[in-house]
Amino acid sequence: MSLVESGANIVVGFGVAIASQLVVFPMVGIPPQNLSTHLEIGAWFTLISLARSYCIRRWFNGLKFRRDT
Fold this sequence. Notes:
Number of domains: 1
Distance between the termini: 28 Å
Structural class: mainly alpha
Oligomer: single chain
């Protein structure tokens, strides 16, 4: 179930990222982009988020391992 949860988190996060870009970019003066540009930006941020999440998980697992030994 952890894999399903992770997958759902990624899919929902990607959708939220795209929706956020469509709303926030014009509010801060970034000119409207086509949908493919938003999808590309969302994909990059999703990859960055995955790497960040993985690193933090490994760091915490390392802390737990050191504490348990």
